[in-house]
Amino acid sequence: MSDDSLKPTRSLLGYTLAAIGVVLVGLGLSWSMLVPSEVYWSEVDAQEWTDATDRVHAARSKPVEPNGQADTELAAAIERLGLAEQKLERARGLRRHTGTALSVTGAVMAATGVFFLRRAG
Fold first, then answer.
1. How far, in Å, CA of 17 to CA of 105, rounded?
2. Does the first or last residue of the chain, that is N or C, have fewer Cβ atoms within 10 Å of its Cβ?
3. Which domain holds residue 75?
4. Do the Cβ atoms of 21 and 110 come closer than 8 Å?
5. Which ranges in 1-121 belong to alpha helices (H)?
């Protein structure tokens, strides 16, 4: 295939990539305004985290018992709180990085589209 026969394909590919890239950049920049927080962290998740925090506080406030019951309750409460905090951090990370990832992907696609347009002449 000659280089001239590829010009229409490169041109179409270039415009397509550039257009999709620009749309992705715009979507990424406005992601936090378009997607509500509840998508990442629901009321149920928040209630689980609150309950786990309350249980740790309650377990730490109990007097020390000779049979170790309080230690077992505290360990279980701390484990549950740890899981809830991991879920919270995952939600925060996704919310923080999704828009950035979309914008970067869009910028790379747009730059690739411009490259194909320049090659098409």
1. 11
2. N
3. 4-120
4. yes
5. 7-29, 31-34, 43-61, 69-120
Angle at 51 between CA 84 and CA 88, to 5 degrees: 25
Summarize pLDDT for 70-108 with one digit per residue, the tens. Answer: 678 888 889 999 999 999 999 999 999 999 999 999 999
Residue type, 101: A
Tally of domains within the chain:
1
Contacts 24+ apart (CB under 8 A), 64-70: none
Give, in degrees to the nearest 5, the angle at Cα 30 between 25 and 33: 165
Dihedral, CA of residue 26, residue 29, residue 30 and residue 31, to nearest 10 = 110
